[in-house]
Structures are given as structure tokens and as C-alpha cells.
Amino acid sequence: MAALRIQPQTQMQMQTRGMKVRSSVKKMCDGCKSVRRKKGKYVYIICSKNPKHKQR
């Protein structure tokens, strides 16, 4: 029976959100900023007002 027991996820794993992956990233609000990485090859959007707006 011990092998069938499911381990609960930690609180940290459930709250972590990733970025939205899109072919065309756009600013969604006033708090959004565009960030260029890898010599301008990648453009990311980060947001200080709403973390759900993160995109890559």
C-alpha cells in the first residue's frame, strides 16, 4: 500500500508560473517592459504590475 501513496506537491511548486510562449509578444499594460536577450535575438516581456503578463 505504501507504493500507491501520492506525495503532495510543495506550496512553492503550485504557485510557480511560467511565461506565455507566443510568436508575437506585445505589451499588455503600463507596467509591461520589453527586454532583449542574446544580442537582440530574443525579446521578453516582463510586468511589474501583473506577473501573468510575462511572455517570451
Automatic annotation (TrEMBL):
SUPFAM superfamilies with a match to the protein in the record: Ribosomal protein L36
GO cellular component: ribonucleoprotein complex; ribosome
InterPro entries: Ribosomal_bL36, Ribosomal_bL36_sp, Ribosomal_LSU_bL36
Pfam families: Ribosomal_L36
Molecular-function GO term, any one: structural constituent of ribosome
Keywords: Ribonucleoprotein, Ribosomal protein
Biological process according to GO: translation
Superkingdom of this protein's organism: Eukaryota
Cross-referenced NCBIfam families: rpmJ_bact
Stated family: Belongs to the bacterial ribosomal protein bL36 family.
Protein's recorded name: Ribosomal protein
Source species of the chain: Lophiostoma macrostomum CBS 122681
